[in-house]
Design a protein that fits this description.
The chain is mostly helical. The protein has helices at about 10-15, 30-45, 50-80, 85-110, 115-140, 150-180, 185-190, 195-220, 225-240, 245-260, 270-285, 290-295. The longest helix is centred in the middle third of the chain and has 30 residues, at about 150-180.
């Protein structure tokens, strides 16, 4: 068992080791996303009149940016098939730095008397959210992570934890920014925000279409509806499927194969019913995505993104 809380200081030092660290991350320049985000945060800090408050919020922003960048290291390492020990070391570093940030926030909110109410509330909420997500990730999702498990399952666990922490750090940055400037939108801070929003909207439309076809095929028991559904399932699995969470890919493909294989048999109706129930639950999960619940997003004006027909990597 390679538990995440067993990572040592030597593991953390291994991050800088050329033999362990993915080559793409070496000497990489700041992305346009990072540059844009830093400019926005610098502008927010310049507007804060109290030097004490500016210093405290500057530290919070700096730590959140660093934590967000550390997640990118995990993403690169996993995508390149790098060693699990690097991923564990970075997760351990994220855990330690996040807890340090929580302690700092709690100390500052009790210490700085000039901290206005709205900012104080945001920082209190941020501290609670960070603590909650850390407990969820390091106390549950990554506890059973080990090299003995299948590579595919390890990747699912890692990317799930990565996604939870990424959303938490992004939302923390966004919420604190809006405490000083409510007009700032997520699109202004994150380059990939609109892409993720468009993908989520398209995914909801495709899931809704599949659900309607499955209902028609089950209720009307028409061969034509089932054939059309199977064709749409094949199309979905070759493209929009990768807009789902990585952990959902295999499960979706399994049930899609069951629906296809049951065609022409007495079991087909039952499988269609199961598929509709599965799609309803999956759609509810997608609707909970932060990008779809951001008050600054307007899904009505979005244009459909071009569907990828290539194979998933």
């Amino acid at each position: 068992m390679v538990a995440i809380n067993h990572a040592t200081s030597n593991d953390a030092n291994a991050i800088a080791s050329p033999s362990l660290f993915p080559q793409k991350a070496e000497g990489r320049k700041p992305t346009s996303d990072q540059v844009r985000l830093q400019k926005q945060l610098d502008d927010i800090l310049r507007r804060i009149k109290s030097p004490v408050v500016e210093g405290a919020c500057g530290r919070v922003f700096t730590d959140l940016l660093h934590l967000h960048d550390l997640l990118r290291i995990i993403e690169i390492n996993v995508s390149e098939g790098g060693p699990l020990q690097v991923t564990l070391a970075v997760f351990s570093l994220i855990d330690n730095k996040s807890k340090s940030l929580i302690r700092f926030i709690e100390k500052q909110t009790s210490k700085i008397k000039s901290l206005r109410g709205s900012v104080r509330q945001v920082l209190d909420g941020m501290s609670f959210a960070l603590r909650h997500e850390l407990k969820r990730v390091f106390g549950h999702d990554l506890v059973k992570l080990s090299e003995a498990r299948q590579t595919n399952q390890v990747r699912v666990d890692v990317m799930r934890a990565h996604g939870l922490l990424s959303n938490c750090f992004r939302q923390s940055i966004m919420t604190l920014v809006r405490a000083f400037n409510p007009a700032v939108s997520a699109q202004q801070l994150f380059d990939d925000y609109r892409d993720r929003l468009e993908q989520s909207v398209l995914l909801l439309k495709d899931l809704s279409s599949l659900m309607e076809l499955a209902r028609q095929a089950g209720e009307q028991q028409e061969t034509e509806a089932s054939v059309l559904l199977i064709g749409e399932l094949n199309t979905f699995c070759q493209g929009p499927l990768h807009y789902l969470m990585y952990k959902d890919w295999e499960e979706f493909e399994d049930i899609a194969r069951e629906v296809t294989a049951s065609y022409g048999s007495a079991r087909h109706g039952f499988m269609l019913h199961c598929f509709v129930m599965y799609l309803e639950a999956l759609t509810n999960q997608v609707r909970m995505r932060a990008v779809l619940n951001d008050q600054s997003s307007d899904v009505r004006v979005l244009k459909p993104v071009k569907r990828s027909r290539g194979k998933r990597s």
